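In this supplementary section we document a worked example of the pipeline. Step one takes a protein sequence of length 132 as its only input; no multiple sequence alignment statistics are reported here. Step two produces a three-dimensional model, which step three serialises into structure tokens for compact storage. The input and output of this example are shown verbatim.
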Amino acid sequence: MEHVNTSGKRKTAIARATVKKGTGKVTINKVPLDLYGPELARLKIQEPLGLVPEKATDVDIIVLVSGGGVMGQAAAARTAIARGLVDFYKDKELETVFRSYDRTLIINDDRRKLPKNPLGHGARAKKQKSYR
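The serialised model returned by step three reads:
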């Protein structure tokens, strides 16, 4: 197979990953993973690559992420990368490794922000009463 396109989502962040045969290069929005953003986000993106290093060194991964914040983009990118590796190798055992480590590596995190309510400043906060 030449290449596989996959996607991952977290809140409003959407990541699209292309996995193809290569030498182990990973780029996020045209930036090499070694130079990408905050260290915590970089470590989060590297999780699926660290679980199966022998398979990750044989492919090049290009990820384009848009929307959301830094950590939302990182979570979306890691889901897209994990799905891409599973689809590229067509390996059910690889999928079970990812699922046993963390379910959100394969399945999008569907949690969203709660809507604001009319009685307060946010979704849960309410205006205080003083009774004086």
